[in-house]
Design brief:
about 270 residues; 2 domains; elongated; five-stranded mixed beta sheet; alpha+beta; about 30% helix; about 25% strand
């Protein structure tokens, strides 16, 4: 009886190490599985040096594919941004020049912009306001158009012709009709008269055409520079107010103002 008990104890003692070995082997395999799972952490989101051993071929799971898709997307975005930035810098180095065709660009005459074609029909002023020399508080450098009829001298201030309604001044000097015109764009004056006496000329502004003023006289149209104007020219001089009044101390001067006739007799159509 005692011998059988001792034999049983010996067998039990021999089995315990084997069972312990089985348990130990199982624990080691489980640890390896856990370690293997831990190894599958994507190295894009890990700072561990041992992630260099990551098995990149094991990318069958959906999570890993999504991560790589995002990575590829961000790389494309960064590359695109660099390309756009480089293109912008290159464009800054080459200044863009916009060229307007000559036929479309505004024309400049004497530093002033020439008006576009602007047809209109405006009667010339009549009965201009005339001042004596002592009433003219002007700078001696002011430009004037000087006209002499007999022993009468009269100056017309160039600045008084700036507005459209005052481009033509129909005047009478000793019953002689005198029509004074002045273009501030071309800085050109022209004076007209006729053989009639006692009446203002029926002359008015037609507007602008081909970068030049044109006029109407008794229903006839002509440009400011026309050589075949339907009305005779009258002698004049363009000078300064100081020089004119020194040469003609008893001169009169027109500085603006007059009557706009109700009926435009320059063009009866």
């Amino acid at each position: 009886m005692n011998d059988s008990s001792e034999n049983q104890e010996v067998e039990d003692n021999q089995l315990e190490p084997q069972e312990a070995g089985v348990e130990t082997a199982g624990d080691d395999e489980l640890a390896e599985v856990v370690e293997s799972d831990e190894k599958k952490i994507n190295p894009l989101f890990s700072d561990e040096a041992e992630d260099d051993d990551y098995d990149y071929e094991d990318l069958d799971d959906e999570e890993s594919r999504v991560v790589w898709y995002f990575a590829a997307f961000f790389i494309i975005v960064i590359c695109t941004g660099v390309i756009i930035l480089a293109a912008s810098v290159a464009q800054d180095n080459e200044k863009v020049q916009i060229r307007i065709p000559e036929d479309m660009s505004p024309s400049m005459i004497n530093g002033k912009r020439a008006p576009a074609d602007t047809p209109m029909v405006l009667p010339g002023l009549i009965s201009p306001v005339i001042h004596s020399v002592d009433k003219a508080n002007l700078n001696d450098t002011e430009r004037v158009i000087g006209v002499t009829v007999g022993d009468k001298h009269r100056a017309y201030l160039a600045n008084a012709f700036e507005s459209f309604g005052s481009k033509v001044v129909n005047d009478l000097i000793d019953n002689v009709p005198i029509s004074v015109t002045y273009c501030d764009i071309h800085e050109r004056a022209r004076v007209f008269t006729s053989s009639s006496r006692g009446d203002f000329l029926n002359m008015g502004l037609g507007g602008w055409v081909d970068k030049e003023m044109f006029f109407y006289y008794d229903n006839e149209e002509f440009k400011h520079s026309a050589e075949d104007a339907p009305i005779p020219d009258y002698p004049y001089i363009v000078t300064t107010w100081g020089e004119w009044k020194d040469a003609h101390p008893q001169t009169e001067i027109y500085m603006g103002g007059g009557v706009i006739p109700k009926d435009n007799k320059a063009l009866n159509k």
